[in-house]
């Protein structure tokens, strides 16, 4: 009997202790299993929207200097990086063959001129003979027959035609001489422009063969210290932004690996309309013009470009991580769970990849207009509350908030912390 009373007292004491400890245990378990969220603040500041691309630095103009005649290179007067002026002598081809051609054609011209004089003398003699015959026949027709008169006449006509042939031969010889002199002049390779030799493709003693195509000897780049071009390939999805930036004369900032601490600036010079398609990706060439007073930009350098699309100062900025965050259904307060109903994707990129499948062009265009309306999440008690915002410009970290839904310094959920 006493044992039962003792056991009853123990049970009552243990039950009382359990009842007293339950609220604290319940609160501990709830706190232990409650999700802890990573948060970031809404800030105020400047936001610059850009489109990034890569490009290659090239001179504004590349003048290829070739050879019109063949032969061995006798002398070279320039090397890589040599600065030249227009008509400066760059190289000389062995001229002996072409000098011989000039001498031959001069002799041919002299022969043709002598032939003209000879034929002209014979013609003058024929004319005099015809005049004497005519005078004698006028005295007495029986002195000279018609046959003899025809001989005098047609001999004169024949010599007149022969004179024209000889004169044409003189013109032909002059043209041949001019051609030989021109070829002789081509043995001197001269610069067509002021500039810098950026490539030399010949060596002394090398033989050129220009029968089938014009060999390329030098590449001269003029005015590299004034400006350079950067040729970039831009995705078709960004072309609307690029053309708007060109219209508004927005700057283009870029860096090169050779000078990673230097920020260069240029402007959009051309948006070309000849697309390139590679693995179903369409890109368009965009030409950027940049000043190069220190000659830091060299041909062939790779440039990392940022096309500035627009800039807004003193605006509220939402962390991009807050816009990408999609909470689990059980973490959201009941009145906002309808925003997540049917959503099986939990990342923005997956949602956008599948958004246009099976939709009409009108639906896609309408959805594009609504793309600026988004939701972010804030902690409210034990749950998350959705706040609708209207977005504007974006950069790599922040997005402009156009609506007045949030305040400066307000914290937004960007993710769930791992661990308990």
Uncertain runs are 344-350
In DSSP terms (H or I, runs of 4 or more residues), the helix count works out at 7
Strand order of the largest sheet: 2-11-15-13-12-16
Fraction of residues in β-strands:
25-35%
Structural class: alpha+beta
What do the pLDDT scores average to? 86
Identify the overall geometry. rod-shaped
Q: End-to-end span in angstroms?
A: 49 Å
Would you count the extended β strands for me? 20
Keywords, separated by commas or semicolons:
420 residues; Helix Hairpins; four-stranded antiparallel sheet; conserved putative lor/sdh protein from methanococcus maripaludis s2 fold; rod-shaped; 7 helices
Describe the protein in words:
There is one protein chain. Strand 12 (251-256) and strand 13 (259-271) form a beta hairpin. The longest helix has 44 residues, at 96-139. The protein is α+β, with helices and mostly antiparallel strands and 420 residues long. The chain has a 6-stranded antiparallel barrel with strand order 2-11-15-13-12-16. It has a 4-stranded antiparallel β-sheet with strand order 3-10-8-5, with no helix packed on it. Strands 7-6-4-9 form a 4-stranded antiparallel β-sheet. Among the domains are: 36-46 and 316-416, conserved putative lor/sdh protein from methanococcus maripaludis s2 fold (Beta Barrel); 95-186, Helix Hairpins. It has 7 helices and 20 strands. The chain has helices at residues 2-33, 96-139, 146-186, 239-247, 320-324, 348-355, 361-369, and strands spanning 37-41, 43-59, 63-66, 71-76, 83-84, 89-93, 188-190, 195-200, 207-208, 216-221, 227-235, 251-256, 259-271, 276-278, 281-291, 302-319, 373-380, 383-394, 398-401, 411-416. Helix 2 (96-139) runs antiparallel to helix 3.
